[in-house]
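Weekly structure sync, notes
Attendees: PL, DS, HV (note-taker this week)

Item 1: RNA-directed DNA polymerase-like protein
DS walked through the input record. Source organism listed as Cardamine amara subsp. amara. Sequence as pasted into the shared doc:
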Amino acid sequence: MSGIDPAIISHELNVDQSFRTIKQKKMKFGPDRAKAISDKVDRLLKTGSIRKVKYPYWLANPVVVKKKNRKWRVCVDFTDINKVCPDDSFSLLHIDRLVESTAGHELLSFMDSFSPYNQIRMNPDDQEKTSFITDKGIYCYIVMPFGLKNVGATYQRLINRMFDKKSGTTMKFYIDDLLVKSLKESEHIQRLDQCFKILNEYGMKLNPAKCTFSVPSREFLGEVLFFRCDLDQRGFKEISRVHLWSYYHETLRVASGI
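Item 1 (cont.): predicted structure, written out as tokens:
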């Protein structure tokens, strides 16, 4: 994966040097989890996302959990290194404002980045701080991995830079969720073209399987957009149930006092 030019942005770990380094002891995994880790290492090596390390000062173990589709999700336990890194004060946008700003738009296009964090490289001086141990050896990340502290802020900082001139008028974004909106159908192709030119300029890759183009409605950040801001029906049912239950108890309370 080529990714974003490091001259534009890279992820840095501002490690507090007053803390001692920590090397986790190698964990044992069952056959299924061990195979999932091995397969993940092979994929990361193939894409140039990790490299081998000989003498790391920081060392973590993989974490393997089963997803809803019964497949394995493999990441790294960065708990120790995260504890010695200060919070990035870069603030994320408010989801409610993002959703409200899409009201009344005739056409919407929704895009997701492909392995968004992996498109940004780690600062070379900080790569070995992401070292993790496996049966195949010790590796560190060349790209920004999921689970590392402040990666969301770094990614949002990049997106803000990319779409700074378009934010608010034609596009909305929240981390790896990108929305192109148009009040009129005739404007939509032009706005998509502007978006693609920016993505191409920065080398940002999209995940086609998670992209939906030129539709009047779809779920975005947990709410359904359809010409105006509508609550997802699932959420509406839950809210209705709560209000009915509260009304029932209030009725009993009043009746008992008569």
